[in-house]
Amino acid sequence: MELFETPLPGVGVRYEFTAEGGDHVGVVVRRDGKRDIALYDREDPDSCRGTIELSEGDASKVAELLGGTNITARLEELKHNVEGLAIEWVTMPDGGGLVGKTIGDGRIRTETSASVVAVIRGEAAIPGPEPTFSLAPGDTVLVMGSATAVRQATQILTG
Questions:
Q1: If you ran DSSP here, which 8-state letter would residue 59 be given?
Q2: Is there a contact between 17 and 9 (Cβ–Cβ < 8 Å)?
Q3: How many CB atoms lie within 10 A of CB 22?
Q4: Cα–Cα nearest to 105, from 134, 129, 128
Q5: DSSP conformational letter for 29
C-alpha cells in the first residue's frame, strides 16, 4: 500500500491511501490532537463521500481496535533512532512569557540550548524565525533540544 503524506501548515498532516477494496481514504492528523477521516468517491477522487471527526481519545480507541500495536512499535523504533531529542509544539498564552516580545528577548538558545525551529501563526508557517521575530498570543512554537532544554524553553516561552 502506498501512503501519501501532505503537510498542512497551521493544521497538521494529511495522509491518503487507496484501500485494497478500492476506496480512497484520507486522514488528517491535526495539531490539536483531533483526527478527521474522509472517504472519497471511487468515481471522482476529488469528491468526498463523508467525513468523521474523532477526538484524541476516540482516535486512540479506533487505533487500538485496528491493531494499534503496529503503530506503537513504529513509534518506539523512531524514538530509538532519535534518542535524546525532544520536540514540542508550544502554544503561546494570551499574555505573559514572551508574548509581545522577541525570541531573542527570551535568550532561549543561550539559556537552555534548545532551538526555536518554526512558528505557526494562523495559516502561515515561519520556518527558522530570526531572534527579532515577535511572538503573539496563539502562536504555536516548535522547540527542539534535549528533554530538559525543551522543558526550560517552554517555561520561558509561556511564563
A1: H
A2: no
A3: 7
A4: 134
A5: E
**What pLDDT does residue 42 have?**
81
pLDDT per residue over 19-61, tens digit each?
888 889 999 988 887 899 999 888 887 788 889 998 877 877 7
For 85, 91, 105, 120, 144, the CA distances from 132, given in Å and listed in that order, are 26, 19, 8, 16, 19
| Residue ranges of domains in the chain | 4-81, 86-158
Give CA–CA dist 121/149, Å, rounded.
23
Show Cβ contacts of residue 120 under 8 Å, excluding neighbours closer than 6 positions: 9, 10, 31, 126, 139, 140, 142
**Cα–Cα dist 13/120, whole Å:** 14
Q: Quote the CATH superfamily of domain 86-158.
A: Regulator of K+ conductance, C-terminal domain (3.30.70.1450)
Q: Which of 140, 84, 78, 152 is nearest to 113 (CA)?
A: 152
Answer for the pair 139, 95: CB distance below 8 angstroms, yes or no: no
pLDDT band at 64 (very low <50, low <70, confident <90, very high): confident
Taking each continuous run of H as one helix and of E as one strand, the counts in the chain are: 5, 9
The residue type found at 32 is D
Distance CA 118, CA 123 (A): 13
Among all chains, which residue has been given the C-alpha cell 498564552?
93
Calpha distance 76→93 (Å, rounded): 31
